[in-house]
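To assess whether the prediction recovers the assembly geometry, we first specified each molecular entity separately, as shown.
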Amino acid sequence: MDLSPPIRFELRRGAVTAVPLAIAVGLFGVSFGVLSVSTGGMGALPAIAMSATTFAGSAQFAAASIVSGGGQPIAAIAAGLLLNARYLPIGVSVARFLFGGPIRRFAQAQLVVDESWAIASRGGGTFDTHRLVGAGIVLWLAWVAGTIIGVIGGEALGDPAALGLDAAFPALFLALLMPQLIGRREVAAAVLGAGIAIALVPLTPAGVPIIAAAGAALIGLWRR
Amino acid sequence: MSDAWLIVVAIGIGTMLIKAAGPVLLGGRALPPAVQGVVALLAPALLAALVATAGLSSGQALVIDARLLGLGAAAVTIALRAPVLLVVVVAAATAAIARLVGVS
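The predicted structure of the complete assembly is given in tokenized form:
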């Protein structure tokens, strides 16, 4: 790759800006690693591979939570992909600013996560792709390294129920949910989604209530 | 392939395709408003369902146990704008202490 000084500047600027966020992302990765090995979730190597390839916290935690709750793999897969559907419009928003052929654009698109997207944003719907790449690489390294540390630490932990680790999943999902509740429609979708899930728990196998709750998003078809 | 690896591969490939769809296939063309409206609400709907099931279900039973106390402590910690890891630690510690004093 030809790295002219302005490109190197933007790459470095993206990377440096991402460092404080990367610390938080790394600690988040630690919790994914710990929960993956300690709660009957994914297991060590799948957890690390998942962080390296999926690189999206909420989908990974959803899959780990469904597996540890005895859900079928198909439920975990569906929940993870439905949660990551939000990357479709995010990908569209940066599409005009990526460069190169399909393979390079594909690679750049993989580095888009909430934090790198925010760092690369220059306002008015424009993005600096080099800043995106610099930030995305730092965040990816932190996420994978955090997961590895968590996996190693988690294997040394004792009984997950005695340590309250089963309470960690709902707490984590609540922490991920709160920033999403930016308007009345989001709150309505959340209340309806939780209601559908609770109603179905006694009636369906584990995992199914979560997939069914995705139906609550259909209220998005109503005009504003 | 074990279930865990099946999940890792399926979500990994699916997520890569979702992320790349806009930049590689759509080339920046906007999504239809109806799709945008639904996609924007998927995360809140699913995350709320995950809070409910991870906090209140045990297999096919709805149960109220130490996890709910942990979740309450997490809500307070989130309201104080603490980092996610602290939220998780507070929730786990609360549930662990509740069990030590005899809550199921």
